[in-house]
Amino acid sequence: MKKYMVICAGLCVALAFSSCKSKESAYRKAYDKAKAQDAANVTDNSGYDDTPVVTPFVDTPVTDNNNNNNNNYDNVSVRTENVNVVSGSGLKAYSVVVGSFSVRSNAENLVSRLRSQGYDAQLAYNSARDMYRVVASTYADKGSAVQSRNNLRNTYPDAWLLFYGQ
């Protein structure tokens, strides 16, 4: 009786392993079917163009489109933040911020790059947001700050104005 149970168990195991085995013919059929579909797609384009679309990059500077000499900068947005100057000669009322970093060393790298380009760059810290602000230039009047921001946007497209109320 034990002998029959062992033989039955062995047959069940052998049957289980043989049924799970993948057949090469099944893979071959799937490969042939995919190959046939591929060949059909190559001959039948049906209006579909699969060539990639390449859009050329055109580097156009950001300019002020107001050709009139209207110096009304009231509609230009300005952010107000409480910042402490970490390095630099001090901020005036309006400053142009070209970068914001949570890591101080990254901000210092940008400050040194701006200084090597001739800017009087400064580093300010906003403790409420835990962010270091890289200031490229600072002005007493809003009009000069807006013009500087527009020029800096050629290189730093995300440049923005900061009002520092001391």
Which helices and strands, and how do they pair?
Blueprint: H1 2-20, H2 24-43, E1 79-80, E2 84-87, E3 94-101, H3 104-116, E4 122-126, E5 131-139, H4 142-152, E6 160-163
Parallel strand pairs: 1-6
Antiparallel strand pairs: 2-4, 3-5, 3-6, 4-5
Word description of this protein:
The chain is an alpha+beta fold and 166 residues long. It is built from 4 helices and 6 strands. Helices cover 38% and strands 19% of the residues. It has a 6-stranded mixed beta sheet with strand order 1-6-3-5-4-2. The longest helix is centred in the first third of the chain and has 20 residues, at 24-43. The termini are far apart.
H/E order of the elements? HHEEEHEEHE
What is the tally of beta strands? 6
The class by helix and strand makeup works out as alpha+beta
Instruction: Report the biggest beta sheet as strand number plus sense, adding barrel if it closes.
Output: 6 strands, mixed
Fraction of residues in β-strands: 15-25%
Mean pLDDT: 81
In short:
The protein is α+β, with helices and mostly antiparallel strands and 166 residues long.
